[in-house]
Amino acid sequence: MSADTKKRVLIIANELSPYTEFTDFAHILNKLAIKTFDSGLEIRVIMPRFGVINERRHRLHEVVRLSGINVIIDKDDYPLQIKVASLPNARLQVYFMDNEDYFKRKSVFRDDQDEFFDDNAERMIFFCKSALETVKKFGWPPHVIHCHGWMTSLAPLYLKTTYKKEPVFGYSKVIYTAQADQFAETLNPNFMKKAMISSEIKDKDFEAFKPGTNSALTIGGSRHADVVVIGSDTIGDNISDELKPSKTKKIVKYDEAWKEDVSSLLELYKSLTES
């Protein structure tokens, strides 16, 4: 554990009320972020700047000092633009990962004909890498990293492999929220090739992700997390079978009470910052 007495929590999520709301957990994360801040823990939130997010209404502005990061995906460079806003009714900051190719479109995961975007895999890879590179640029070592939503599922894998030796992540405990499937499609065939972002990731590390289904992403993200929070009461049997308590992994069962009171999740954060 670092000698620094400040306890830091990072939430990486693809939904957070009031910006994007796909499941009930968007509101739960909002309450949790505010309660975490109010408890005295340092907290920051990172999410995609989807084109449906109104920058003027939510008062997003570019963080110039963090500019200049290029994210490489399969040898192609994609410039990262980082924007920030203050969460309404709170003083904590939300950082938005933006890129012209991946996030300017005025829809989230599907086109006007309700077709799943063919590049959703690349958008996920870009977002996960962007989030971790941004934390490196902050120089802000989090004790707890809570990854929420299928678009964050690669982050636990990357933290345990490619970014394992980065000092900023040297004592981070990783939480992953496992949810019910939100898409029935399969990611494009190039998913595995592009997601293997470094030689530190071995085939066995990526095994669970290979099918490219929503369930595969959930299982993959869960396998590489230290703690798994069950984020839905309708989670599939295949995921339930995977998520059994073990000596090396803690499983937190879904609690309907979280919609009103997130105290137990805050206590989870606090316990992990002390361990």
From TrEMBL:
Q: Which UniProt keyword terms apply here?
A: Glycosyltransferase, Transferase
This protein is called starch synthase
Q: Which GO terms describe its molecular function?
A: alpha-1,4-glucan glucosyltransferase (ADP-glucose donor) activity
Write the Enzyme Commission number(s) for this entry. Answer: 2.4.1.21
Keyword Phosphoprotein applies: no
| Domain Starch synthase catalytic as annotated: residue spans | 8-241
Its domain of life reads Bacteria
Q: What is the protein's species of origin?
A: Flavipsychrobacter stenotrophus
* InterPro entries from the UniProt entry: Starch_synth_cat_dom
Enzyme class, first EC level, given as a word: transferase
**Record-linked SUPFAM superfamilies:** UDP-Glycosyltransferase/glycogen phosphorylase (SSF53756)
Catalysed reactions, as listed in the record: [(1->4)-alpha-D-glucosyl](n) + ADP-alpha-D-glucose = [(1->4)-alpha-D-glucosyl](n+1) + ADP + H(+)
